[in-house]
Amino acid sequence: MKARVTITLKPGVLDPQGRAIQNALGGLGFAGVAGVRQGKVIELDLADGTSEAEVDDMAKRLLANTVIENYRIELL
Amino acid sequence: MKARVTITLKPGVLDPQGRAIQNALGGLGFAGVAGVRQGKVIELDLADGTSEAEVDDMAKRLLANTVIENYRIELL
Q: Do the chains contact at B58 and A18, CB–CB below 8 Å?
């Protein structure tokens, strides 16, 4: 089975990478880019029967820094 | 309007970050993790009326390295 964990910075947390992308897009001539936020997506190939609670535990303990990041789990 | 661009490594491309996460999950005692792939998710805050073709152009020219990465666009 597969699971996808999408990790994004919490609102209000400064995102220098997103800012750099925004500036670069402007430099390439793309108008109307009001904001850019970059996050991570982690795709896990898991043994069948792995529960969402286990994936949540993985996210809490390793995949996400829950002080500054939110995460969302999708079982695929 | 918002758009989300999900960027993942193409199959077959070595993913050292994914491998490191897999080893770390094993070290924390999570069994049954057969594989981990890490990618990026970029959330764009765009002017209304921005077309998917423009977002596709942004992805091709800046956001993704199309030699080793695939990307998927969602208009939100």
A: no
